[in-house]
Design goal:
mainly alpha; membrane; transmembrane helix; single chain; globular; about 210 residues; about 80% helix; transmembrane
Length: about 210
């Protein structure tokens, strides 16, 4: 059998270039299961616990203390943040130079943003009524996530990341205006469920 060593046609070359470009773009945008789903799960777990404490009318729906709910939320967000950081590091292994440096600085921004949030909440919580303290922790943590998601979308021209940050900001703002119970419920359903759905949808779209 004689091997076909004829030169590739321009159409074949363009097809290969397009396929490689699509594959590279998918890799550079990271794994959506790492960038979105862990955040969604953390919010479903954490804010459901907080909602069970507050209820919608100020009466607890389960024997969960306020700070127990906050502890569940912060613990889950730390795990989600670690998963997202791993996804960003994995994504940056494919690039060098300025892009890699941007990814490293973005990872440091996540860490420092969360640390500043904790410091502010520890300092300001004693000055607020008891029912507002949990809202302070929840609202400021989501503020950091929303702003950095939008910043990440701008850095990598990743529209799903940018719009997910904008969605997080909108849901967070509405919940803060409505109060602790409504904030927890809206974030658990709209934000937690939304991020899980977005991550799964983006992953399925990548496989097609």
């Amino acid at each position: 059998m004689v091997e076909d060593d004829r030169p590739a046609s321009p159409e074949e070359i363009l097809r290969v270039i397009e396929e490689q470009s699509v594959a590279t773009t998918k890799q550079l945008h990271g794994d959506p299961l790492l960038l979105y789903v862990p955040w969604g799960i953390s919010w479903v777990l954490g804010f459901t616990a907080i909602f069970l404490h507050y209820g919608l009318d100020g009466r607890s729906l389960a024997p969960i203390a306020q700070m127990q709910g906050v502890a569940v939320l912060l613990s889950a967000q730390m795990v989600a943040g670690a998963a997202a950081a791993y996804g960003i590091v994995k994504m940056n292994r494919l690039v060098r130079g300025d892009s890699s440096a941007r990814g490293a600085m973005f990872g440091y921004a996540w860490f420092l943003g969360m640390m500043l949030m904790v410091i502010l909440c520890v300092r300001l919580s004693p000055l607020l009524p008891v029912d507002e303290r949990g809202l302070l922790w929840a609202g400021t943590s989501l503020l950091v996530v929303a702003v950095l998601q939008m910043a990440g979308g701008a850095i990598w021209l990743n529209w799903p990341m940018f719009f997910s940050g904008a969605w997080a900001a909108g849901v967070n703002a509405l919940g803060v205006l409505l109060g602790p119970g409504w904030h927890a419920l809206l974030v658990a359903v709209l934000l937690g469920g939304g991020f899980i759905a977005l991550g799964l949808w983006l992953r399925l779209r990548r496989q097609t």
